[in-house]
Amino acid sequence: MTTVHFTCSDCAQTIEVNEEMRETILAAGCPVCTTGASEDDFSDDPDDG
Predict the structure, then answer these.
(1) Measured distance CA(44)–CA(33) in Å, rounded
(2) What is the C-alpha to C-alpha distance for residues 39 and 7, in angstroms, rounded to an integer?
C-alpha cells in the first residue's frame, strides 16, 4: 500500500496516510484542526512538506 505524508498548512501536524485517507483529507480537511487541505500538503518525504 502506498503511503504519503500530510502536513497541515495551519497546525503543522504531520501524519502518514494511505490513498483512502488522502482522499478523505482533501474532502474534509485536516483531521486535527479541520483546515482545508490541498494536493500541495502531501509529500512522499515528511521533511519535504
Answers:
(1) 22
(2) 11
pLDDT for 36 equals 98
Q: Kindly report, residue by residue over 1-49, the tens digit of the pLDDT.
A: 799 999 999 999 999 999 999 999 999 999 999 999 999 999 997 665 5
Sheet arrangement for strand 42-43? 14-18, 3-7, 42-43
Helices (H), 1-49: 19-28
31 Rama class: left (phi>0) / alpha (psi -120 to 50) / beta: alpha
Do the beta carbons of residue 47 and residue 9 sit within 8 Å? no
